[in-house]
Amino acid sequence: MEYKTDIEIARSAKIRRITEIAENAGIDGKYLEPYGNYKAKVDLSFLSRKNVKKGKLVLVTAITPTPAGEGKTTTTIGLADGLKRIGKSVAVALREPSLGPVFGIKGGAAGGGYAQVVPMEDINLHFTGDFHAIGAANNLLAALIDNHIYQGNALGIDPRRVTWKRCVDMNDRQLRKTVCGLGGKTGGMPREDGFDITVASEVMAVLCLSSSVSDLKSRLARIVVGYTYGGKAVTAGDLKAQGAMTALLKDALKPNLVQTLEGTPAFVHGGPFANIAHGCNSVIATRAALSVADYAVTEAGFGADLGAEKFFDIKCRLSGLRPSAAVIVATVRALKMHGGVEKADLAEENLAALEKGLPNLLRHLHNVKDVFGLPAVVAINRFPADTDAEIALVTEKCKSAGVNVVLSTVWAEGGKGGEALAREVVKLCETENAFSFAYDENAPVKDKIRDIAVKVYGGDGAEFTSEAEKQIKTLEESGFGNLPVCVAKTQYSFSDDAKKTGAPTGFKITVRSVKVAAGAGFIVALTGDIMTMPGLPKVPAAENIDVDDDGNIVGLF
Description:
- This protein is an alpha/beta fold and about 550 residues long.
- The strands form six sheets. Strands 1, 2, 3, 4, 5, 6, 14, 15, 16, 17, 18 and 19 form a twelve-stranded mixed β-sheet that branches. Strands 20-22-23-21 form a four-stranded mixed β-sheet. Strands 7-12-13 form a three-stranded antiparallel β-sheet, covered by helices on one side.
- The radius of gyration is 23 Å and the shape is globular.
């Protein structure tokens, strides 16, 4: 069979005009704001219409990621197309890709093979401009902070305690730590500063958790940007920034409608990373998908210890969303890597390594099923080199844990390869579940972090630096102690050490700093050496991307 790249597959597909996709999904043209022929914004008033559907919400998560790949977004899209093929009403809700990974090493977030959302070039690049609007709003606030200090500093902001950073949607390690305000008196007040990647901006989290324009404005006003000389928190509202920020974000708040290769409606909106933020698409997009279909399929970033935990403990807790079932994506290749096999040797059968790596899958499975109380199925993305004996071993171990295994071939076959998974998901959605959270939001901050470390990561607890201890004390005294917690840690391990693959035990995570994201409505705990501004790899993907003489993009996956 001739091999085609993702972009070649996407270009060869016959995609429908977005007006047709909207009409088939029951979205009246009066709610649609087309951006060309194949993508559109949906007006927020669509969510307030009468007689909306109340579909069942299915979360797709995965094992701890490896260089071998797992295919979570591809599975999400293929499952949705599979549900459509077996006669179900379905919509997808996904995050937008960040330019950082697109030009770095991870790639895009539009799926792959014959399970993609399209137009994939647009989605992976500028799309409808949401990320640019978020970056502009973030940097407007930064400019207002420094201008306030320059113009007399009526609020008494301590320049040494400004916590708000500028952002850019690119992996650029050079900007992690900067000094701004140079150039004499007219250049502003010199101070240390830095940049986050746009997906780590609190503005991104705020947009993704907001339910309306008024909610967005209120959340923006609550953002803490720094502290006065006397130690009092200063907010964006104190700077009167929320109105202008909302003006920049009012269109970005509207969910984007696109389609899968098989014509399933897909709401692609928002894009926080799950290792440094809460890792879920917008609440508005998820509600839009639930309102037009009997089944809404969504995904959360990285493994179930990151994206899924934050989906449950933050997104669902704050929005009232309640999932009906979960899919845990794995590959035999990735499990063998967790068992110690080098990437170059993954094509060889190795049952011993597979058995050694399986505890990683089983811990994720335990978390979804026993900690969060959801019925689950394991979806195995089968590769040609996977042997029947390897598949049988995974199936046996999962069945011993009370969970079925379904083979998925959506990358090669699209929705057809997801039909078996779709049938299992439908069955799970009909069962009762005891969905719950991993911790009590009213517990002390340190207890909430320890609960995550023990119940979800499988560790022995958490340790806190003296700086983190002081920050937690200040946050609790300021009335933020009852907020949920967003732990920022490496995606490559249950622990905060990326080298501890598989299912490590006997460890404690180290919390080095804690800050409040008051607008988003959660506390961020930074662990290990996690950074909010990634860097490019030695050979960035950008080196292989080009445009031919006819204006066609080449080398994009």
